[in-house]
Specification:
With 76 residues, this protein is an all-alpha fold. Helix content is 68%, strand content 0%.
């Protein structure tokens, strides 16, 4: 077993350990299983990809809303 671990990249070892411990999100587990067994990913049930720019926009919008909530609570 030690021999195989020396050749495995650190990231792959972490993924394997997390998978064995049941710590991976089900969608990650599905993608890994599809990759491992060579099955094409089912795009009809896959979650849509969200561009990072949209995530950043949403984060900024939530920050503004959170600040307004804080201000309204402080003014009471």
């Amino acid at each position: 077993m030690g021999h195989a671990n020396r050749r495995r990249p650190q990231g792959a070892s972490r993924l394997l350990a997390d998978a064995q411990a049941g710590k991976l999100h089900p969608s990650v587990m599905t993608a890994l299983m599809a990759y491992a067994y060579g099955k094409p990913r089912d795009t009809t049930t896959a979650e849509p990809m969200v561009p990072l720019s949209e995530i950043e926009d949403a984060r900024q919008s939530l920050e503004i809303k959170l600040q307004r909530i804080r201000e309204s609570l402080e003014s009471r």
